[in-house]
């Protein structure tokens, strides 16, 4: 399973758990408009750290905060390599 | 102490793992090999690995020593100098098993694990100060000053008519265990626990001795229920204290001991015993707050305050805070929340998880998880989050069986079910982001869940 599909799966899972309607996930979808709130993202990031073994937000280097779903996926793809 | 035990007639027994000691043997025997008088009017550090030695020494020293410091067996050698200085220790009593004391600047007397015949005249010359050690937030123990009067204030005035055999999972040098020790020797006999024994072995020994009254923390009791040996004892009275008793553990014990009173008590080393609840419901009736009586409870800033004859006098040492406020109330630091006419403990002030500015008390979430029939115990903690500062996570220990229910569900199904039950009653930020099933959770020497320092 690719990093992208693992991330998409978490988005869908958390949306379901949090009872939120998730927009269809395309690269252009803005996270803030995706239907998820900050708690949902906190949960997604924590779970991805467990499944992918990385937390790209926890880095000493300056990071660009993801704005779209595409940014979010690339952030993980970059550190998961 | 000896006078009141002796005066009551028929002194009881102390049942230890390797020996049973008749307390009337103290009339002509001693653990001090005839050196008790050297301890008169002294401040005595009591460092015994053996609970039996410590128990006998406590009875002998009360009314004789000026002060005695009850060292729990896991006291770190690194903290010893501060303890000795704080309590102005003149002499140290140790047993042969306490080997890590090293060279001390005070005389040392070795106590025996049994009563040796001695020509002894027991004479009470003073009210001895009892000093208990309790963990501070920094790790160094705090020295809490009690007297026998404050320690026994929650005991019944009269010896009960029935013969009681008490036991406790606790070490008797800790407040919860000391309460049971005092009940044991004042109202019957006592079975001491032993760190070398498994829960199964301890319960088997308690059963063989005929235990009728037994006490432990919710974590102790979850361990007992998990051991499969809980049903080997048939007590009349089961007591929970030292941690929040949720409905899950109360119901678990009611199921295991249908003929017993299942009581949960609130006490702390500083505040003493506040109350005992016997209605098998978690929390306590709201009417206890403000009710008149020797033990007075009030709530200030959502935390419980207690004024009673059972509270400690003060902390020993320099530059320490006060235990009692000007109006003699002790702030327990335990937070309360009212739900349907009862107050529930929702954790300690400061033990709060902050999820994006919203507070979560781990105990509140644990209570929901622990209510599931397949859950034995759980630990809810903060996990750092780059998004909300923290998220809530839970580690869960499963039960061996669920009271006749069908086979254990698959881990995935179980964690989903737990998340679902949290969702039904808890706000979204309180629902664990992750639930992990673990084989065991660490329980401290004092019988409480080890919580990571936030």
Short overview:
Chain A has 81 residues and is mostly helical. Chain A has helices at residues 3-17, 38-52, 69-80. Chain A has one domain: ACP-like (Non-ribosomal Peptide Synthetase Peptidyl Carrier Protein, Chain A, Orthogonal Bundle).
Describe it for me?
- The complex is a heterodimer of chains A (81) and B (454).
- The longest helix of chain A has 15 residues.
- Chain A has 81 residues and is mainly alpha-helical.
- Chain A has three helices and no strands.
- The two termini of chain A are 14 Å apart.
- Chain A has a single domain, classed as Non-ribosomal Peptide Synthetase Peptidyl Carrier Protein, Chain A.
- Chain B contains ten helices and 27 strands.
- Chain B is globular and about 70 Å long.
- In chain B, helix 7 packs across helix 8.
- The chains are: A mainly alpha (81), B alpha/beta (454).
- At the A-B interface, helix 2 of A face loops of B.
- Structural class of chain A comes to mainly alpha
Oligomer state equals: heterodimer
Which chains have the largest interface? A-B, 14 and 16 residues
Intertermini distance of chain B? 42 Å
Radius of gyration of chain B: 23 Å
User: What gross morphology of chain B would you assign?
Assistant: globular
In CATH terms, what is the architecture of chain A?
Orthogonal Bundle
What features would you highlight for this structure?
heterodimer, A: 81 residues, mainly alpha, 0% strand, B: 454 residues, alpha/beta, Rossmann fold, eight-stranded mixed sheet, 10 helices, 27 strands, 30% strand
Topology summary:
The complex is a heterodimer of chains A (81) and B (454).
Chain A (H helix, E strand, L loop, with lengths): L2 H15 L20 H15 L16 H12 L1
Helix pairs in contact in A: 1-2
Chain B lengths: L1 H6 L5 E3 L4 E3 L6 E2 L12 E5 L3 H11 L5 E4 L9 H7 L4 E5 L12 E4 L4 E2 L11 E7 L5 E7 H4 L12 E5 L6 H13 E4 L7 H11 L3 E4 L1 H10 L9 E4 L6 H10 L4 E8 L3 E6 L6 E2 L10 E5 L2 E5 L6 E3 L13 E10 L2 E7 L4 E3 L2 E3 L1 H9 L4 E11 L3 E10 L12 H15 L8 E4 L17
Parallel strand pairs in B: 1-12, 4-5, 4-6, 5-9, 6-7, 11-12, 11-13, 13-14, 14-15, 26-27
Antiparallel strand pairs in B: 1-2, 3-8, 9-10, 10-20, 15-16, 17-22, 18-19, 19-21, 21-22, 23-24, 25-26
Helix pairs in contact in B: 7-8
